[in-house]
Protein backbone atom coordinates (compact mmCIF):
# COMPACT_ATOMS: atom_id res chain seq x y z
CA UNK A 1 0.00 0.00 0.00
CA UNK A 2 2.90 2.32 0.65
CA UNK A 3 4.29 2.16 -2.88
CA UNK A 4 5.48 5.71 -2.44
CA UNK A 5 5.37 8.37 0.25
CA UNK A 6 2.27 10.55 0.35
CA UNK A 7 3.46 13.16 2.83
CA UNK A 8 4.17 16.63 1.43
CA UNK A 9 4.26 15.32 -2.16
CA UNK A 10 2.24 16.16 -5.23
CA UNK A 11 0.04 14.26 -7.67
CA UNK A 12 -0.80 16.21 -10.82
CA UNK A 13 -0.05 19.41 -8.94
CA UNK A 14 -2.18 18.59 -5.88
CA UNK A 15 -1.20 17.00 -2.54
CA UNK A 16 -1.19 13.23 -2.80
CA UNK A 17 -4.22 11.49 -1.39
CA UNK A 18 -4.13 8.51 0.99
CA UNK A 19 -4.45 6.05 -1.92
CA UNK A 20 -1.74 7.55 -4.09
CA UNK A 21 0.12 4.69 -5.77
CA UNK A 22 -2.89 2.36 -5.68
CA UNK A 23 -4.04 1.08 -9.08
CA UNK A 24 -7.73 0.36 -9.62
CA UNK A 25 -9.29 -1.42 -12.60
CA UNK A 26 -12.85 -0.12 -12.83
CA UNK A 27 -15.04 -2.39 -14.95
CA UNK A 28 -18.35 -1.03 -13.71
CA UNK A 29 -21.47 0.59 -15.09
CA UNK A 30 -24.34 2.91 -14.19
CA UNK A 31 -23.81 4.39 -10.68
CA UNK A 32 -23.25 1.69 -8.03
CA UNK A 33 -19.81 0.55 -9.19
CA UNK A 34 -18.68 3.87 -10.71
CA UNK A 35 -19.31 5.71 -7.41
CA UNK A 36 -17.13 3.21 -5.54
CA UNK A 37 -14.31 3.67 -8.06
CA UNK A 38 -14.74 7.44 -8.09
CA UNK A 39 -14.39 7.65 -4.31
CA UNK A 40 -11.13 5.69 -4.54
CA UNK A 41 -10.00 8.08 -7.27
CA UNK A 42 -10.84 11.05 -5.04
CA UNK A 43 -8.39 9.59 -2.53
CA UNK A 44 -5.58 9.57 -5.08
CA UNK A 45 -5.85 6.11 -6.63
CA UNK A 46 -5.09 5.69 -10.33
CA UNK A 47 -8.47 4.49 -11.61
CA UNK A 48 -8.54 2.91 -15.06
CA UNK A 49 -12.09 2.75 -16.38
CA UNK A 50 -12.63 -0.18 -18.74
CA UNK A 51 -15.57 0.37 -21.07
CA UNK A 52 -16.95 -0.93 -24.34
CA UNK A 53 -16.02 0.67 -27.65
CA UNK A 54 -19.48 2.25 -27.67
CA UNK A 55 -18.96 3.57 -24.16
CA UNK A 56 -20.38 2.63 -20.78
CA UNK A 57 -24.19 2.72 -20.57
CA UNK A 58 -24.19 5.82 -18.36
CA UNK A 59 -22.90 7.87 -21.29
CA UNK A 60 -26.35 7.55 -22.89
CA UNK A 61 -28.32 8.94 -19.92
CA UNK A 62 -29.33 12.22 -21.54
CA UNK A 63 -32.75 12.05 -19.87
CA UNK A 64 -33.31 10.87 -16.30
CA UNK A 65 -36.76 10.75 -14.65
CA UNK A 66 -38.07 12.82 -17.53
CA UNK A 67 -35.56 15.60 -16.92
CA UNK A 68 -33.13 16.72 -19.63
CA UNK A 69 -29.66 15.88 -18.31
CA UNK A 70 -27.74 16.62 -21.52
CA UNK A 71 -24.69 18.88 -21.61
CA UNK A 72 -22.68 20.46 -24.43
CA UNK A 73 -20.21 18.35 -26.34
CA UNK A 74 -22.33 15.19 -26.24
CA UNK A 75 -21.92 14.85 -22.48
CA UNK A 76 -24.54 14.34 -19.78
CA UNK A 77 -24.68 15.21 -16.10
CA UNK A 78 -25.30 11.61 -14.96
CA UNK A 79 -22.00 10.37 -16.38
CA UNK A 80 -20.07 13.49 -15.36
CA UNK A 81 -21.23 13.14 -11.75
CA UNK A 82 -20.10 9.52 -11.42
CA UNK A 83 -16.85 9.29 -13.38
CA UNK A 84 -14.31 11.90 -12.28
CA UNK A 85 -10.70 11.06 -11.41
CA UNK A 86 -10.56 8.21 -13.93
CA UNK A 87 -8.72 7.35 -17.13
CA UNK A 88 -10.66 5.53 -19.83
CA UNK A 89 -9.61 2.58 -21.93
CA UNK A 90 -12.10 1.31 -24.52
CA UNK A 91 -11.98 -2.43 -25.30
CA UNK A 92 -14.06 -5.00 -27.12
CA UNK A 93 -14.35 -7.70 -24.45
CA UNK A 94 -16.17 -9.98 -26.89
CA UNK A 95 -12.77 -10.61 -28.39
CA UNK A 96 -10.22 -12.66 -26.42
CA UNK A 97 -7.55 -10.04 -27.05
CA UNK A 98 -9.69 -7.48 -25.24
CA UNK A 99 -10.09 -9.72 -22.21
CA UNK A 100 -6.36 -10.41 -22.27
CA UNK A 101 -5.68 -6.67 -22.05
CA UNK A 102 -7.76 -6.50 -18.85
CA UNK A 103 -5.97 -9.50 -17.40
CA UNK A 104 -2.63 -7.85 -18.17
CA UNK A 105 -3.76 -4.66 -16.42
CA UNK A 106 -4.78 -6.74 -13.40
CA UNK A 107 -1.32 -8.28 -13.08
CA UNK A 108 0.04 -5.26 -11.19
CA UNK A 109 -3.23 -3.74 -9.98
CA UNK A 110 -4.38 -3.47 -6.38
CA UNK A 111 -8.16 -3.39 -6.85
CA UNK A 112 -10.57 -4.71 -9.47
CA UNK A 113 -14.19 -3.53 -9.38
CA UNK A 114 -17.21 -4.88 -11.26
CA UNK A 115 -20.98 -4.72 -10.77
CA UNK A 116 -22.31 -6.96 -13.53
CA UNK A 117 -24.90 -9.58 -12.68
CA UNK A 118 -23.54 -12.81 -11.27
CA UNK A 119 -21.89 -15.04 -13.87
CA UNK A 120 -20.97 -12.36 -16.44
CA UNK A 121 -17.42 -11.81 -15.19
CA UNK A 122 -16.86 -15.54 -14.74
CA UNK A 123 -17.93 -16.32 -18.33
CA UNK A 124 -15.31 -13.87 -19.60
CA UNK A 125 -12.55 -15.18 -17.37
CA UNK A 126 -12.67 -12.06 -15.19
CA UNK A 127 -14.12 -13.59 -12.03
CA UNK A 128 -12.27 -13.50 -8.73
CA UNK A 129 -11.02 -17.09 -9.01
CA UNK A 130 -9.61 -16.24 -12.46
CA UNK A 131 -7.91 -13.00 -11.50
CA UNK A 132 -6.36 -14.17 -8.24
CA UNK A 133 -4.39 -16.70 -10.27
CA UNK A 134 -2.82 -13.74 -12.06
CA UNK A 135 -2.41 -11.59 -8.96
CA UNK A 136 -3.10 -13.11 -5.55
CA UNK A 137 -2.91 -9.67 -3.95
CA UNK A 138 -5.85 -8.32 -5.93
CA UNK A 139 -8.80 -6.91 -3.97
CA UNK A 140 -11.84 -7.92 -6.01
CA UNK A 141 -14.82 -5.66 -5.31
CA UNK A 142 -18.16 -6.93 -6.57
CA UNK A 143 -21.44 -5.03 -6.49
CA UNK A 144 -24.78 -6.82 -6.97
CA UNK A 145 -28.48 -6.36 -6.46
CA UNK A 146 -29.18 -8.96 -3.80
CA UNK A 147 -25.84 -10.34 -2.61
CA UNK A 148 -23.62 -13.21 -3.82
CA UNK A 149 -25.69 -16.01 -2.24
CA UNK A 150 -29.34 -17.02 -2.18
CA UNK A 151 -32.09 -17.77 -4.72
CA UNK A 152 -32.00 -14.29 -6.28
CA UNK A 153 -28.22 -13.88 -6.51
CA UNK A 154 -28.34 -14.09 -10.31
CA UNK A 155 -31.15 -11.57 -10.75
CA UNK A 156 -30.42 -8.13 -12.25
CA UNK A 157 -31.18 -5.03 -10.21
CA UNK A 158 -31.06 -1.26 -10.37
CA UNK A 159 -31.59 1.45 -7.79
CA UNK A 160 -35.36 1.43 -7.40
CA UNK A 161 -35.69 -2.33 -6.98
CA UNK A 162 -32.99 -2.13 -4.33
CA UNK A 163 -35.04 0.51 -2.54
CA UNK A 164 -38.16 -1.61 -2.91
CA UNK A 165 -36.69 -4.90 -1.70
CA UNK A 166 -34.95 -3.28 1.30
CA UNK A 167 -38.03 -1.50 2.63
CA UNK A 168 -36.57 1.91 1.86
CA UNK A 169 -39.51 2.95 -0.32
CA UNK A 170 -41.76 2.80 2.73
CA UNK A 171 -39.51 5.26 4.56
CA UNK A 172 -40.86 8.22 2.58
CA UNK A 173 -44.09 10.18 2.70
CA UNK A 174 -46.72 10.24 5.43
CA UNK A 175 -48.89 7.64 7.08
CA UNK A 176 -51.17 6.07 4.49
CA UNK A 177 -49.17 7.30 1.48
CA UNK A 178 -48.24 4.88 -1.26
CA UNK A 179 -44.57 3.77 -1.25
CA UNK A 180 -42.33 6.06 -3.26
CA UNK A 181 -38.63 5.81 -4.15
CA UNK A 182 -36.28 8.36 -2.63
CA UNK A 183 -34.91 10.58 -5.37
CA UNK A 184 -31.19 10.89 -6.09
CA UNK A 185 -30.64 7.20 -6.87
CA UNK A 186 -29.72 6.61 -3.22
CA UNK A 187 -29.58 2.79 -3.27
CA UNK A 188 -26.90 3.01 -5.96
CA UNK A 189 -25.11 5.74 -4.05
CA UNK A 190 -25.04 3.93 -0.69
CA UNK A 191 -24.10 0.71 -2.51
CA UNK A 192 -21.08 2.45 -4.01
CA UNK A 193 -20.12 3.97 -0.67
CA UNK A 194 -20.28 0.59 1.07
CA UNK A 195 -18.36 -1.16 -1.70
CA UNK A 196 -15.53 1.38 -1.46
CA UNK A 197 -15.56 1.04 2.34
CA UNK A 198 -15.25 -2.74 2.06
CA UNK A 199 -12.44 -2.51 -0.46
CA UNK A 200 -10.50 -0.16 1.83
CA UNK A 201 -10.88 -2.60 4.72
CA UNK A 202 -9.58 -5.44 2.54
CA UNK A 203 -6.70 -3.27 1.37
CA UNK A 204 -5.72 -2.66 4.98
CA UNK A 205 -6.02 -6.38 5.81
CA UNK A 206 -3.69 -7.16 2.90
CA UNK A 207 -0.89 -5.43 4.77
CA UNK A 208 -0.98 -8.22 7.36
CA UNK A 209 -1.93 -11.21 5.20
CA UNK A 210 -0.08 -10.39 2.01
CA UNK A 211 -3.00 -11.62 -0.07
CA UNK A 212 -6.14 -10.10 -1.46
CA UNK A 213 -9.75 -11.16 -1.14
CA UNK A 214 -13.18 -10.77 -2.65
CA UNK A 215 -15.45 -8.05 -1.25
CA UNK A 216 -19.20 -8.12 -1.97
CA UNK A 217 -21.71 -5.30 -1.48
CA UNK A 218 -25.30 -5.16 -2.70
CA UNK A 219 -28.23 -2.81 -3.12
CA UNK A 220 -30.20 -4.92 -0.67
CA UNK A 221 -27.61 -5.12 2.09
CA UNK A 222 -26.46 -1.52 1.74
CA UNK A 223 -29.99 -0.12 1.73
CA UNK A 224 -30.87 -2.18 4.81
CA UNK A 225 -27.77 -0.80 6.53
CA UNK A 226 -28.74 2.73 5.50
CA UNK A 227 -31.79 2.15 7.69
CA UNK A 228 -29.77 0.19 10.23
CA UNK A 229 -31.13 1.91 13.34
CA UNK A 230 -34.76 1.49 12.33
CA UNK A 231 -34.27 -2.08 11.12
CA UNK A 232 -32.44 -3.24 14.24
CA UNK A 233 -34.81 -1.50 16.66
CA UNK A 234 -37.83 -2.92 14.84
CA UNK A 235 -36.37 -6.41 15.04
CA UNK A 236 -35.56 -6.00 18.72
CA UNK A 237 -39.10 -4.88 19.55
CA UNK A 238 -40.91 -7.19 17.14
CA UNK A 239 -42.67 -8.92 20.05
CA UNK A 240 -44.51 -5.70 20.90
CA UNK A 241 -47.71 -4.51 19.24
CA UNK A 242 -47.17 -3.42 15.68
CA UNK A 243 -48.04 0.16 16.52
CA UNK A 244 -45.05 0.27 18.87
CA UNK A 245 -42.64 -1.96 16.99
CA UNK A 246 -43.00 -0.68 13.44
CA UNK A 247 -40.37 2.03 13.35
CA UNK A 248 -40.77 2.39 9.60
CA UNK A 249 -44.23 3.84 10.19
CA UNK A 250 -44.57 7.30 8.66
CA UNK A 251 -46.62 9.56 10.91
CA UNK A 252 -48.01 12.60 9.17
CA UNK A 253 -46.60 15.97 10.17
CA UNK A 254 -49.77 16.96 12.03
CA UNK A 255 -49.57 13.83 14.19
CA UNK A 256 -45.90 14.01 15.19
CA UNK A 257 -45.39 12.42 18.62
CA UNK A 258 -43.03 15.23 19.64
CA UNK A 259 -44.26 18.54 18.17
CA UNK A 260 -40.91 20.26 18.74
CA UNK A 261 -39.22 17.60 16.64
CA UNK A 262 -41.23 18.38 13.54
CA UNK A 263 -41.22 20.78 10.59
CA UNK A 264 -43.17 24.00 10.09
CA UNK A 265 -43.81 26.41 7.24
CA UNK A 266 -42.73 30.01 7.72
CA UNK A 267 -44.29 33.21 6.39
CA UNK A 268 -42.02 33.28 3.32
CA UNK A 269 -42.88 29.69 2.32
CA UNK A 270 -39.62 28.22 3.61
CA UNK A 271 -39.76 25.26 5.96
CA UNK A 272 -37.98 24.97 9.30
CA UNK A 273 -37.04 21.57 10.73
CA UNK A 274 -36.90 21.19 14.51
CA UNK A 275 -35.03 18.23 16.06
CA UNK A 276 -35.33 18.80 19.80
CA UNK A 277 -35.55 15.19 20.93
CA UNK A 278 -35.07 16.03 24.62
CA UNK A 279 -38.46 17.67 24.57
CA UNK A 280 -38.93 18.39 28.27
CA UNK A 281 -35.51 20.03 28.44
CA UNK A 282 -36.24 22.40 25.57
CA UNK A 283 -39.97 23.04 25.87
CA UNK A 284 -40.08 25.90 28.43
CA UNK A 285 -37.33 27.94 26.74
CA UNK A 286 -38.70 27.13 23.30
CA UNK A 287 -42.19 28.30 24.23
CA UNK A 288 -40.68 31.48 25.62
CA UNK A 289 -38.73 32.13 22.42
CA UNK A 290 -41.93 31.78 20.39
CA UNK A 291 -43.86 34.08 22.70
CA UNK A 292 -46.23 31.36 23.91
CA UNK A 293 -44.95 31.08 27.48
CA UNK A 294 -48.41 30.26 28.75
CA UNK A 295 -48.48 26.97 26.87
CA UNK A 296 -45.42 25.76 28.78
CA UNK A 297 -47.53 25.69 31.95
CA UNK A 298 -50.71 24.42 30.33
CA UNK A 299 -51.56 20.96 31.70
CA UNK A 300 -52.27 19.74 28.16
CA UNK A 301 -48.67 20.49 27.15
CA UNK A 302 -46.78 20.32 30.45
CA UNK A 303 -44.60 17.30 29.56
CA UNK A 304 -43.75 14.96 26.70
CA UNK A 305 -46.61 12.57 27.38
CA UNK A 306 -49.16 15.39 27.58
CA UNK A 307 -47.89 17.04 24.41
CA UNK A 308 -47.99 13.70 22.60
CA UNK A 309 -51.57 13.13 23.73
CA UNK A 310 -52.57 16.58 22.49
CA UNK A 311 -50.13 16.75 19.61
CA UNK A 312 -52.57 17.73 16.88
CA UNK A 313 -53.83 20.71 18.85
CA UNK A 314 -50.32 21.87 19.68
CA UNK A 315 -49.09 21.47 16.11
CA UNK A 316 -51.95 23.62 14.83
CA UNK A 317 -50.96 26.32 17.32
CA UNK A 318 -47.31 26.10 16.30
CA UNK A 319 -48.30 26.26 12.62
CA UNK A 320 -49.98 29.59 13.27
CA UNK A 321 -47.00 30.89 15.21
CA UNK A 322 -44.39 29.94 12.60
CA UNK A 323 -46.49 31.34 9.75
CA UNK A 324 -46.26 34.77 11.38
CA UNK A 325 -42.57 35.31 10.56
CA UNK A 326 -40.07 34.49 7.81
CA UNK A 327 -37.45 31.80 8.23
CA UNK A 328 -34.68 34.40 8.66
CA UNK A 329 -36.66 36.05 11.44
CA UNK A 330 -37.15 32.73 13.22
CA UNK A 331 -33.49 31.87 12.70
CA UNK A 332 -32.47 35.04 14.52
CA UNK A 333 -34.98 34.43 17.32
CA UNK A 334 -34.09 30.77 17.90
CA UNK A 335 -30.33 31.24 17.62
CA UNK A 336 -30.34 34.00 20.23
CA UNK A 337 -32.86 32.44 22.62
CA UNK A 338 -31.22 29.09 23.32
CA UNK A 339 -29.30 26.07 22.07
CA UNK A 340 -32.13 24.74 19.93
CA UNK A 341 -31.55 22.11 17.27
CA UNK A 342 -33.07 23.24 13.96
CA UNK A 343 -32.23 23.89 10.32
CA UNK A 344 -33.82 25.17 7.14
CA UNK A 345 -35.29 22.57 4.79
CA UNK A 346 -33.21 23.33 1.71
CA UNK A 347 -33.61 22.47 -1.92
CA UNK A 348 -30.61 21.15 -3.84
CA UNK A 349 -29.97 24.38 -5.70
CA UNK A 350 -29.72 26.26 -2.40
CA UNK A 351 -26.77 24.20 -1.20
CA UNK A 352 -24.07 26.08 -3.12
CA UNK A 353 -24.96 29.32 -1.34
CA UNK A 354 -24.98 27.72 2.12
CA UNK A 355 -22.00 29.23 3.99
CA UNK A 356 -21.47 25.98 5.90
CA UNK A 357 -21.28 24.02 2.64
CA UNK A 358 -18.82 26.57 1.27
CA UNK A 359 -16.64 26.63 4.38
CA UNK A 360 -16.20 22.85 4.35
CA UNK A 361 -16.01 22.56 0.55
CA UNK A 362 -18.83 20.01 0.41
CA UNK A 363 -19.53 21.31 -3.09
CA UNK A 364 -16.59 22.55 -5.14
CA UNK A 365 -16.03 24.35 -8.40
CA UNK A 366 -13.61 22.87 -10.90
CA UNK A 367 -12.55 23.59 -14.47
CA UNK A 368 -13.96 21.38 -17.21
CA UNK A 369 -12.36 21.41 -20.69
CA UNK A 370 -15.75 21.37 -22.43
CA UNK A 371 -18.15 22.90 -19.94
CA UNK A 372 -15.96 25.54 -18.30
CA UNK A 373 -16.39 26.03 -14.56
CA UNK A 374 -18.65 23.36 -13.07
CA UNK A 375 -19.84 22.62 -9.54
CA UNK A 376 -19.68 19.06 -8.17
CA UNK A 377 -20.46 17.33 -4.89
CA UNK A 378 -17.07 16.89 -3.26
CA UNK A 379 -15.62 13.86 -1.48
CA UNK A 380 -17.42 14.08 1.90
CA UNK A 381 -14.49 13.33 4.22
CA UNK A 382 -11.63 15.67 5.11
CA UNK A 383 -8.03 14.51 5.70
CA UNK A 384 -5.53 16.82 7.40
CA UNK A 385 -2.38 15.41 5.77
CA UNK A 386 -3.48 13.56 2.62
CA UNK A 387 -6.50 15.43 1.24
CA UNK A 388 -8.85 14.17 -1.42
CA UNK A 389 -8.93 16.04 -4.72
CA UNK A 390 -10.64 16.30 -8.09
CA UNK A 391 -7.77 15.94 -10.57
CA UNK A 392 -9.69 14.85 -13.65
CA UNK A 393 -13.22 15.30 -14.95
CA UNK A 394 -15.06 12.35 -16.50
CA UNK A 395 -13.05 11.04 -19.48
CA UNK A 396 -14.07 10.71 -23.11
CA UNK A 397 -14.55 7.16 -24.42
CA UNK A 398 -11.11 5.56 -24.64
CA UNK A 399 -9.40 8.89 -24.04
CA UNK A 400 -6.41 7.22 -22.38
CA UNK A 401 -6.32 3.87 -24.21
CA UNK A 402 -2.90 4.26 -25.80
CA UNK A 403 -1.41 5.85 -22.69
CA UNK A 404 -2.61 2.98 -20.49
CA UNK A 405 -1.41 0.31 -22.93
CA UNK A 406 2.06 1.84 -23.19
CA UNK A 407 2.30 1.88 -19.39
CA UNK A 408 1.27 -1.79 -19.39
CA UNK A 409 4.20 -2.70 -21.66
CA UNK A 410 2.48 -2.78 -25.05
CA UNK A 411 4.51 -1.54 -28.01
CA UNK A 412 3.16 0.78 -30.70
CA UNK A 413 3.09 -2.23 -33.04
CA UNK A 414 0.98 -4.10 -30.48
CA UNK A 415 -1.40 -1.16 -30.27
CA UNK A 416 -1.67 -0.91 -34.05
CA UNK A 417 -2.44 -4.64 -34.20
CA UNK A 418 -5.23 -4.26 -31.60
CA UNK A 419 -6.66 -1.36 -33.56
CA UNK A 420 -6.59 -3.38 -36.80
CA UNK A 421 -8.53 -6.17 -35.11
CA UNK A 422 -11.10 -3.73 -33.73
CA UNK A 423 -10.22 -4.55 -30.11
CA UNK A 424 -9.57 -0.87 -29.27
CA UNK A 425 -10.66 2.39 -30.84
Topology:
Blueprint: E1 10-11, E2 14-15, E3 23-27, H1 32-42, E4 46-51, E5 63-64, E6 67-68, E7 70-71, E8 75-76, H2 77-82, E9 86-90, H3 96-106, E10 111-114, H4 120-123, H5 128-134, E11 139-144, H6 159-166, H7 186-209, E12 214-218, H8 219-226, H9 228-236, H10 242-245, E13 263-265, E14 271-274, H11 279-290, H12 293-297, H13 304-309, H14 311-322, H15 327-337, E15 342-344, H16 355-359, E16 363-368, E17 372-377, H17 401-407, H18 412-420
Parallel strand pairs: 3-4, 3-10, 4-9, 10-11, 11-12
Antiparallel strand pairs: 1-2, 5-6, 7-8, 13-14, 14-15, 16-17
Helix pairs in contact: 1-7, 6-8, 7-8
What brief labels describe this structure?
425 residues, alpha/beta, Rossmann fold, formyl-coa transferase, domain 3, six-stranded parallel β-sheet
Give an account of the 3D structure.
The chain has 425 residues and is α/β, with parallel strands linked by helices. It has two domains: 278 residues, Rossmann fold, CATH 3.40.50.10540; 97 residues, formyl-coa transferase, domain 3. Helices cover 37% and strands 15% of the residues. It has 18 helices and 17 strands. The strands form six sheets. It has a six-stranded parallel beta sheet with strand order 9-4-3-10-11-12, sandwiched between helices.
Uncertain segments:
1-8
Report Rg. 26 Å
CATH fold-type name of the largest domain: Rossmann fold
How many domains in all?
A: 2
Percent range of helical residues: 25-40%
Give the integer mean of the pLDDT values: 92
Query: Could you give the count of β-strands?
Result: 17
Distance between the termini: 33 Å
Shape, per Cα inertia axes: elongated
What would you give as the CATH superfamily of the largest domain?
Crotonobetainyl-coa:carnitine coa-transferase, domain 1
Provide a count of the helices: 18
Structural class: alpha/beta
Strand content: 15-25%
Strands of the largest sheet, in order across it? 9-4-3-10-11-12
Query: If classified by CATH, what would the architecture of the largest domain be?
Result: 3-Layer(aba) Sandwich
What is the level 1 CATH name of the largest domain? Alpha Beta
Report the major sheet.
6 strands, parallel
Amino acid sequence: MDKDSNTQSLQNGTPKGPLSGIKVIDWTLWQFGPVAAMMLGDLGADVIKVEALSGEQGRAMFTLSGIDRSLPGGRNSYFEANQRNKRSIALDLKQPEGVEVVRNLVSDADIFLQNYRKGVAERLGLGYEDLKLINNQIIYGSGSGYGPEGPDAYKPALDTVGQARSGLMYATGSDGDDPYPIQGVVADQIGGIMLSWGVLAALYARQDTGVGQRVDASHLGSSIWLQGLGVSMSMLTAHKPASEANLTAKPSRDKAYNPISNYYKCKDGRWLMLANLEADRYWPTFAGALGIEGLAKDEKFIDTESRAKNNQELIKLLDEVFESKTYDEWDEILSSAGDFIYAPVQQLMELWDDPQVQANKYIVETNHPTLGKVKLANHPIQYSETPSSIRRVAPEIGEHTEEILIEAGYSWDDIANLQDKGVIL
